[in-house]
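Risk mitigation, structural track. In case the binding assays with 4AD fail to produce interpretable data, a predicted complex structure has been prepared as a fallback.
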Amino acid sequence: MRYFIEDLGKHVNETVELKGWAYNTRSSGKIKFLELRDGTGMVQCIYFRGECDESAFENFGDITQETSLKITGVVREHPKKPGVYEIGAQNFEIIGKSPEFPISPKEHGTDFLMNHRHLWLRSKRQHAAIRVRAEIIKSIRDFFDGRGFTLTDAPVFTPNACEGTTTLFETQYFDDKAYLSQSGQLYMEATAAAFGKVYCFGPTFRAEKSKTRRHLIEFWMVEPEVAFNDLYDNMDLMEQFVEYVVQRTITNKKEELEILERDVSKLAPVKGEFPRIHYKEAVEIIKKENPDFVDGDDFGGADETIISSQFEKPVMVHHYPTAIKAFYMKEEPKDATYSMSVDMLATEGYGEIIGGGQREDDLDIILRKIKEHDLDEKDFAWYNDIRKYGSFPHAGFGLGIERTVAWICGLSHVRETIPFPRMYGRMYP
Ligand code: 4AD
Ligand code: MG
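Fallback model:
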């Protein structure tokens, strides 16, 4: 039988065998402590001279940081901390030695840690953040799967741009050119006509030459699309979705969020209706603190922070100027200078986590927009067919996973929210 650290509570007073890695060791007189981790958790193994095998006590010094080993011992509840277990250890057997593990408990620079990302992932905080990420992803899938959405994943190789041509990654596709997907949205618009409520969930790519704490070159995005939803239905879905993901994650991942020292009381209010403000109202808010902001421009990171600092819940800013949004955004019928777009800005200055809106469903207008955006009409023939055959109002959005993980975990940079980040200037390891 295999025993795992996270299940030790079910085996109190039993003798178990554990396999894992040495996180830390220390000695004090007749006692030696081994902090053992196995990926599912961490447990203190206590070697008492006279109770454990004499050889285990004598050779304890062979256990260096990250040595992999097998140990046997009896599970006990911690005398002072209920729910915490420890091992009255008998012996150990080294499986793999680990001479001079490069990441010691002392401080290391970011560059050093990023170069050792493959090893850094074993440390407590990194482990906690990636476990929270896994829970967030599971909750996202459960939310949509539980509400009648069909998963219709989009291709990664694409013949055309979705989010503007400046951030396209070009690659060879036999004798043709292809681009790595910036967003699965255009394909979701097609599958929405086949399945009604759909989503895709996959990696997306942007050749953004910016080194900010919010930008990755390769990031994961979940993109729902719903037939016959308008901008306002879309906002309803956005707030229900984000409430579900946040509340479930803070309930299920308490221990990890504690390790990350996240003040979860700040996430408790993320439920019910979220504030909705027009782009023009957002501009008013920004101008009070940043008088140089030009009406009509897109928001910078600092501007988003000004807006979100006004609210204890995420805020949805809708009706951005048509001129700064993608070709597919529907123009507001009452005033075409504004689009039926919506972004969700997270609390505490974490910035935009969702971009979305209602799509243009009129064939003539989409043809005009494709021209205005300097896109090649023939690349979009299939996309325009969605407007030609049974066109329908529809709306959707994309939530960036890494920015959401950064927000929920309280991490200042997206590089710690994905196991192996791809960033501008970094592709190793
Ligand atoms: O606002 P964006 O560009 O929207 C779209 O791609 C739409 N086609 C989605 C849709 O409507 N189906 O990107 C959506 C989200 C952003 O709000 C952000 O969370 C994340 O994707 N994102 C990035 N995350 C990390 N690094 C980057 N370079 C990102 N670019 C966008
Ligand atoms: Mg956006």
